[in-house]
Amino acid sequence: MFGDYTVVEVPGDHGVYYETAFRQILPVHMQKAEGRLPGRLPRSAHRALLNAAAVPDLLLAGERRTISIVIENLSTLTWPAAEASNLYLANRWLDEAGNVIIWVDGRVPLPKLPPRTPVALSLPITAPLIAGDVQLIIDVVEEGDTWFYLPQTTPLPGRVKVVSERPPPVYEVLAELSATRANVDQLRKYVSELHTHYETSTSWKVTRPLRAAKMVARRLAGLATRQT
């Protein structure tokens, strides 16, 4: 664990050895050692706070995104840069039950980070290739040791729906169907497909077009009723 150490010969004689070692030589080397971190951070340094402006709740299988993350060191120790500490901002993917789907995904080396000094980093992520509901865990990892989130940190989790393919753009389809007085059943089928893809999403980019689709479907249904 401590790869760096020093061997010192202490000169002296009987009755003089201990005074020389403990009063003069040993304190000097102890002060030098206090200024260096061991090969791995102590567990007390595994404390972080992560914030993101937007974590996607819908991704195409295999889709790549870049997420802006603000990370803050909540410990009392300065984290050395990744070259010396093996600290990375990273992510992994879990299924709904918490089982790991992808152990290693995005990795960004951390700069030197003093306590309580937020820094913004861009983390590239890639969605799993299997469609379904998954968990995205973004956290700090000390390579060769452990993820911070295991005992003492606040990881950034997000529930993501991974789909195998996207439906056509919502507004374009609605405009086309409305303009051509399309079959009501065809529009209802499209709305149903939207539900299949987006039923768990809370994003306004999804729910707003979905509400529009339902409104158009009701209007066309009323039109069809009047025509018959």
Q: Helix-strand pattern, N to C?
A: HEEEHEEEEEEEHHH
Separation of termini? 82 Å
How large, in whole angstroms, is the Cα Rg? 29 Å
Q: Globular, elongated, flat, extended or rod-shaped: what is the shape?
A: rod-shaped
Short description:
This protein has helices at 17-34, 82-85, 170-179, 184-198, 204-227; strands at residues 48-52, 58-60, 64-73, 87-95, 100-102, 107-109, 119-126, 132-142, 146-147, 156-163.
Secondary-structure blueprint:
Layout: H1 17-34, E1 48-52, E2 58-60, E3 64-73, H2 82-85, E4 87-95, E5 100-102, E6 107-109, E7 119-126, E8 132-142, E9 146-147, E10 156-163, H3 170-179, H4 184-198, H5 204-227
Parallel strand pairs: 2-10
Antiparallel strand pairs: 1-3, 3-7, 4-5, 4-6, 4-8, 8-9, 8-10
Give your account of this protein's structure:
Strand 4 and strand 5 (100-102) form a beta hairpin. It is built from five helices and ten strands, in the order αβββαβββββββααα. 31% of the residues lie in helices and 27% in strands. It is rod-shaped and about 105 Å long. It has three domains: 1-36, no CATH class; 43-163, Immunoglobulins (Immunoglobulin-like, Sandwich), CATH 2.60.40; 170-227. Strands 2, 4, 5, 6, 8, 9 and 10 form a seven-stranded mixed sheet that branches. It is α+β, with helices and mostly antiparallel strands. The model has no long low-confidence stretch (mean pLDDT 76).
